[in-house]
Specification:
The chain has 187 residues and is mainly α. The longest helix is centred in the middle third of the chain and has 62 residues.
Length: 187
């Protein structure tokens, strides 16, 4: 379909070019000049409605098809951006909620575990389910928070992440406590 349109446009350009249409024939001493410009304008005006009726839906279909191909990537980008924003909020909340934790400070094992647990619970209590699912659930959120924290040399997945995930699974992080702390940080 696209090739046919391109060939038709090329044929029209060849027929309507001034080199071909300026002088058609010579009769005696006089040249017969074809008024191709007027004909071309009349043709364009007469074909405007059919062209718009036929080409506009075709062009719209191609645009819609292109948007459909790009949409999953755009949705993925936007959901990943939202997950990153959520994780930043979770890390900030966890650092503010635990005594001895501060942004830019290296965290020890005994401080990092509650930071991860409280940050993860905060996300679970406040984020939309689609964002939590995109982040990999509670375990995925905890693992991502673990990777974002500045931990000391003794910290490892076994020493920090696993106990934090166990606290989250056991429900030892109180949602009401988290809400109170959230209200305090907003004031």
């Amino acid at each position: 379909m696209t090739r046919m349109l391109l060939l038709a446009a090329l044929a029209l350009a060849c027929v309507a070019s001034p080199a071909f249409a300026a002088e058609v024939a010579v009769v005696g001493d006089k040249a017969v000049i074809l008024p191709w410009g007027d004909w071309l304008v009349a043709l364009a005006v007469s074909l405007r409605e059919p062209i718009l009726t036929i080409l506009l839906p075709i062009i719209a279909a191609y645009i819609i098809q292109a948007i459909r191909k790009v949409y999953p990537w755009a949705a993925l980008f936007l959901s990943q951006r939202r997950v990153e924003m959520m994780l930043e909020a979770a890390v900030g909340f966890g650092l503010n909620a635990v005594n001895g934790a501060a942004k830019g400070k290296t965290l020890s094992v005994n401080v990092a575990v509650p930071v991860i647990a409280k940050g993860t619970q905060y996300v679970i209590d406040t984020a939309p389910p689609a964002v939590i699912k995109a982040a990999g659930g509670a375990d995925g959120i905890a693992a991502r928070i673990f990777r974002k924290l500045d931990l000391d040399d003794r910290a490892s997945e076994a020493a920090v992440l696993v106990p934090a995930q166990e606290q989250i699974a056991a429900g030892t992080v109180d949602a009401d406590e988290l809400r109170r702390m959230d209200e305090m940080t907003r004031q």
